[in-house]
Amino acid sequence: MIACCEKGHCIFAKSMETKTLDGLYCNSMTRYERLLTREIRIGDLLMGGQHPIRIQSMTTTDTMNTMATVEQSIRMIEAGCELVRITAPSINEAKNLAEIKKELRARGYQTPLVADIHFTPNAAEVAARIVEKVRINPGNFADKKKFETIDYTDAEYNEELERIRERFIPLLRICKEYGTAMRIGTNHGSLSDRIMSRYGDTAHGMVESALEFLRIAEEENFHNIVLSMKSSNPQVMVQAYRSLIYRMHLENMNYPLHLGVTEAGEGEDGRIKSAAGIGTLLEDGIGDTIRVSLTEDPEFEIPVARALVSRYAKRAEHPLVKELPALQMESSGRITLENGEVFPFNPLEYSRRSSTEMNHLGGHQVPRVIADFSKVAAITPATLFAVGYQYSVPLDKWNLGDQACDYIYTGDHPVDFDIPGTLGVIMNANAWKAVADRDRTFPYFLAEELKAAEKFSTVLNFVEIEAESIIDGTVSLASLPSTTVVVLVTSHSHAMPVLRRAFFELSMKDCSLPVVIRRSYPESGEEEIQLHASTDLGGLLLDGFGDGVMIDTNGKVSPQKINSLAFGILQAARTRISKTEYISCPSCGRTLFDLQETTAKIRAVTDHLKGLKIGIMGCIVNGPGEMADADYGYVGSGPGKITLYKGREVVSRALDAEHAVDALIDLIKEHGDWVEKG
Fold it and tell me: Among 15-29, 121-135, 567-581, which stretch is predicted with the lowest mean pLDDT?
């Protein structure tokens, strides 16, 4: 039993009432500590409070195919899935959840089941009597989305809320009667026209969408709820979760949080985007359950989710970091420290840190990528092939790819050939002295080398500084050469918040030197590096910090993979676009075509369209809404039928699937966004 007070708030809610969120949305921005949330029950599974972060995923089978759904659910459970979500698009599918549950229980699997509901409140009411949890989307539970802008008066808006209340209360009462948990799952792309009209296509609108339903639930004394704020854009997703926590705290709420980046995609891109969004929040102790949404079979999502969560098993044991005074928001929206000093960062809104531009680095320039070749035996023209450069012997010229790095760090190795015109070389300071007059070649100093240095570059000087030295003031920022690019490093086990704390210190001291974030992973495996770097670097970039990135693996991972990872992180953070972006859903029982096969087919013919965003959605639920951020959309609209979108507008309906990819290419050409492959 969950201990409750007279008002129905669990004991964890009571402790939250006296808990100050020093980080505005988290307990602390420097100390790892789980955000204490309400404990809820999902069947025999407890979530929130002091319980472990739960791992979940969603089936991709037809819900009416009982045995296929059961078999896939078992594969998921045996991979480590603690909650199995199954779509229920109509009453028939909702009723069949009973057969699926019966078969799973007969085989000895007690894992709670979750019904995923869109558009059909009556299906939710059936499912709530069968499974342990229902998920509803406030954007389409009692609303229809037509992308209409409506100018509501306050009275008209309240009338709409009353209509929602009448439709929502029956489900709440069923959930209370049957002990069924609920997720109120807001999706960025499926905000109702009502919310969009009043709050816009914003993180703020996402929060309001959930709170409207949450307040109704609280009026009905129903608290067995988890919340989510999903978006395919990690920047929006992070802001929405932080804003939700802040708003809940103001209203004395503390519901557990389900984390996820929706429509993350497949392969490397999907993992990077998921880690950037989910990992950024996990770093601050936020999150009670996670789902990694990949366009792959669901059992492959589980190891990624487990790897993300396992990083925090002992994180609370980290060495202490100099704390910030508590943050507070004034009525004007300005963020101040508790001592009244203005804080130069708003964690609830994105803005890039202001820095001085030097030689196309910093300022308004996109973040730069530095490739580490310090461990190779020698630097040759062939060395550069792995980082986006190809040399044409017949034409005697370098050709640059869209993911050509901006600098190479060569350690003590000189570069004895003509480098591409856009490339810079960085060398250890002592070795650099011998080639100091060479064009586009710059020194790399350790902070302690500066006092004895006899020579500096007049253009750029890269200076490696420990984040802790900036935080505690042992490095004099005022004494650094005006041409300094700070290379920020740390070996601290709570690395991302420590690096972020150093950025706070730079801003509070009005230091505008550009900063390259360097992270080293000498002992990690390739998959760990992918997820950890995406979290560490992605988290900082999502907060607007960093003018460049550098990833060091001590030679354990190929330069080509590390270069691709660096550009992937920048793309996930929406700070530098270097390739086509695919907003593809992970598939479910609603999906009307083979998503993996179709995504691969579309990628094969469009992956050279740098900067273009293409939404690939299995059904209308995750169609025009979820891909609202995309330039073009490819959406299943019936068995074997595809509807094409330009932005949110339907262009072609009910195309035969076998011709739809060609039609998509024609549509891209028609709007002038097509280029031939080089």
Answer: 15-29
